[in-house]
Amino acid sequence: MSETDLKSIGELAALCKRRGFIFQSSEVYGGLGSCWDYGPLGVELKRNIKERWWQSMTYRDDIEGVDAAILMHPTVWKASGHIDGFSDPLVDCRECKARFREDLIDTAKACPNCGNKGTFTEPREFNLMFKTQMGAVESESSTVFLRPETAQGIFVNFLNVQSTMRKKLPFGIAQIGKAFRNEITPGNFIFRTREFEQMEMQYFIKPGMQGEEMERWKEIRYQWHLDNGLRPDRLQWAPHPADKLAHYADAATDIEYKFPMGWGEMEGIHSRTDFDLKQHQEFSGKNLSYVDQADNNKRYIPYVIETSVGCDRTLLAVLADAYRVEFAGDKERERVVLKIHPELAPNKVAVLPLMKKGELMERSDRIVSNLRKKFKTDYDVAGSIGKRYRRQDEIGTPFCVTVDYDTLEDQAVTVRHRDSMQQTRVAINKLEEYINQQM
Ligand code: ATP
After folding, report:
1. Of all protein residues, whose CA lies closest to atom 19 belonging to ligand 1?
2. Pocket test for ligand 1, best of 34, 175, 192 (most atoms within 8 A of CB)
């Protein structure tokens, strides 16, 4: 048996569409630039990724969750620096009018679109935030922004969470939610989109602790990606050089994954100092400092270590990593299989009655409704068993349960394992326990 990995993002995008993971947004109208819809299997996979992150980050003493509004007071973005500084430098080709990020092309060379030389305009700063109007009467309405990151919803709630949950430093606040950026050069399927989901955590600490805490969170976050089943040789650190740090950071490093198109950022871990809370204190006029009872009631603005991971990019990495084409000699026996971590797989089990006949179906119905109390279970009764296995392999279902005529006699079913394709006979009353053990 030999196997090959994913060769291109296009190959994965085709599978995602064919099998109901991800569709183009508004496809019947020809799509909308870099916006994607998650289909029935994509939404399950995404929920499982979010659930794994939420459990690892909030099922503990020192981190609480929030779900802040996407629309925020416009001054938030003034204070955070996004109105003045959240922009990319943009150049236009005077010949073909194509637009590029200046930092991503060599403007001394020919236009990548039309091939003409020396035609670029001077760079202009292009703000990435989407604007909209709030209020019914346009003349009286105010401009608000779709948040470009979830972090600010956490900073403005720092005192609310600290006081209501009686938190002492160090403690964190976690959030999962949509963010929007009017990216100039989006692409590579769901790698860079204009609407995406972030999973962010801000950890508030005593000033001076940032070096130690940064190291601690780097390890925790790297391990999370490994625990999602990603291959270790496809993960790496990408520290930001000191002269490239964002205005708010005193240290930053990315976790990168080796996508088919090259290494790309999945998560950023940033030491944000007291920049954000200080800015919000100044712009709001509210005192956002913390009284440290453990240190003679000293008052100070906490420092922050941030972990910020893209949900969609994690999902892309999980799919790209799991994708295999296996060959067992002849072309006939080729199969595409998604070797997704069982906990992340959209369906855990598929029940496949060997034939669509009375007694077999009745027995299968009962098995399905019992399994569904515990596991997301697919029920597929149509087509040859070989084709049904192939479909389940392609959508990453870890276990297929076949119900055959022997089942009616021995009260047992055949469990087929996705990765090894090995089959085991298991008693129906032990099925749930067996699957749990194998997960
Ligand atoms: P990039 O350099 O790729 O533009 P960034 O450094 O601006 O990313 P952050 O602001 O640190 O990204 O956002 C944290 C995480 O959010 C990223 O690691 C990424 O996983 C995700 N993310 C950011 N922008 C996008 C986008 N346009 N589409 C999908 N995910 C994104």
Report:
1. 310
2. 192
Average pLDDT across the chain, whole number = 94
Domains of the chain, by residue range, sit at: 3-81+140-319, 87-127, 347-438
CATH architecture of 3-81+140-319: 2-Layer Sandwich (3.30)
Block residue for tokens 């470009």? 148
Tens digits of residue pLDDT in 117-132: 878 988 888 889 999 9
Please, where are the H alpha helices in 165-198? Answer: none
Alpha-carbon gap, residue 48 to 31, rounded angstroms: 27
Please tell me the CATH superfamily of domain 347-438, with its number: Anticodon-binding domain (3.40.50.800)
Distance in Å, CA 222 to ligand 1 centroid: 17
Cα 183 to averaged position of ligand 1 atoms, centre (Å): 10
Q: Which residues have CB under 8 Å from 207's CB, separation 6+?
A: 274, 300, 301, 302, 303
pLDDT in tens, 220-241: 999 999 999 999 999 999 999 9
On whether the CB atoms of residues 304 and 288 are closer than 8 A, the answer is no
